[in-house]
Amino acid sequence: YVFSLGMNISNMFYIGGTMGIHYMNYHQDMTHYEYDPDGHIAEFDYFRFSERLYTRGSAVGFKLGILIKPIQMLRIGGAVHFPYKYKLSETYSTFIQSGFDTPVDGVSEYESASPESNYAYQLSTPFKAVGNVGFQIFKFALIDVDFEYVDYSSMSLRYGSDGYDFMNENQNISEAYRDVFNFRAGVEFRISALSLRAGGSYYESPYAETEANKDADYFGFSGGIGFKTKNFFFDVAYMYSQHRENYYMYPNSQAVVNDYNNNNILATIGFKL
């Protein structure tokens, strides 16, 4: 839910604010499975370990922004996004099952399940500041550039339901993450009822220099075309993003390199009556 308020002063200064209320539900099931199909390990056949996590919560956050138009063709803006304070509650349980080659007292398979545990705490999201510059070249072209500052090291956990203060976890967060600068830019050319668009984005890795994913930057590119008349409009855009991360199953294990390449096509059609 979003509640916003804005003010226009002499068509030159624009001030606005937003209060956002977020609700979240997150459900995760993870299973780790190992087996010995060829009998290389004495007595061992297989084991399976499963974890189930269900998180739900809500948060309130605020954003403030200002926009200045010193001349008609130039727009300069800035905004501050204050951290969201999530109040979260979790339910967690585990299950393990193992099998052996030789039965003991007629039993070759064992299993055990943990009781469900419940925990509540508070999570603060990163602080963010955004700057924007836009140019309008008559009715022919628009150019827009965004700069974004995000301090991921300012994330924190607080107020555990058992009185825990998360001191060690917050210290680890401040050491593992860093503040970053992100960049976005876009351009649009308009020829009569036809519009041609292109854009790009670059997001720095949020991990500190001492972390394995310190170079896990994100790149994105997009292009599109639009057609607009008095009573009809049609837009189509192509978006490509690239991202690479290292994943470690165990501490000091060999890295599994995950390459993410996403391709998206978005089309919009509209009529005005």
Describe this structure in words.
This protein is mainly beta and 273 residues long. The protein is built from one helix and 15 strands; from the N terminus they run E-E-E-E-E-E-E-E-E-E-H-E-E-E-E-E. The protein has one helix spanning 167-176, and strands at 2-9, 13-35, 44-71, 74-81, 85-104, 107-113, 117-124, 127-137, 141-151, 156-158, 179-191, 194-203, 218-228, 232-247, 256-271. The protein has a 15-stranded antiparallel beta sheet that branches. The longest helix is centred in the middle third of the chain and has 10 residues, at 167-176. It is elongated, with a radius of gyration of 26 Å.
Instruction: Please estimate the helix content.
Output: under 10%
Shape: elongated
Q: What can be said about the biggest beta sheet?
A: 15 strands, antiparallel
Termini gap: 29 Å
Could you say which structural class the secondary elements and strand pairing correspond to? mainly beta
Tell me the radius of gyration. 26 Å
User: Could you list the spans in which at least 5 consecutive residues all have pLDDT below 50?
Assistant: none
- Global mean pLDDT: 93
The secondary-structure element order is EEEEEEEEEEHEEEEE
Residue share in β-strands:
over 45%
